[in-house]
Amino acid sequence: MANTISYPKVNAKSSDLILGTSMPLPNTNNDPRTVNFSIAQVNGLANSPDIATTAITITDAQLRTIGTAPVEILPLVSGYIYQILGATAQAINAGGIVDFYGWGGQDGFISWRNTFLTDAHRVEIPNGQLPSGGVGGGGNETYVEIPIAGSSRATSPLIIGVTSNTNPTITGNPSATWIINVTYRLIQVN
Fold it and tell me: Within this chain, do residues 174 and 88 fall inside the same structural domain, yes or no?
């Protein structure tokens, strides 16, 4: 075999191949084999199968009642908690100049609780990033949320709500959708 330092360096493509050993399944009489793996295959293994991202669109009707009826993003999974790894929120406002949702200083949150709790594992969405329902501010910006460590409860859904559990005041005829992407991992607990 040639000295590997003598080969040129290049930028890898997903279709490039790497030489490696494929190990047999346990309890078989098969021998290890020398094979080629694509960069895409190796990269796929690096992305944990335990990590998932879910996208949900919160409708105008849901926004109008999100204070008293928080929206379930992910259903409960018996014996597991949701560890939120990150989230994004993008408001798509479609109302007119005099149309808006008044949030009364509330912030948004994603958590396992349907009410805001300061020591709960969550992400927070500042008031200025909540949908306005009127002209401007929506569609061009995506707010990136960083998780806050805290307590969690097994067998609880993942929910989006607002901190004071108050529905927005409606002025005019606001209209918006809110696109939420949550990246999470399910962790089994006793």
Answer: yes
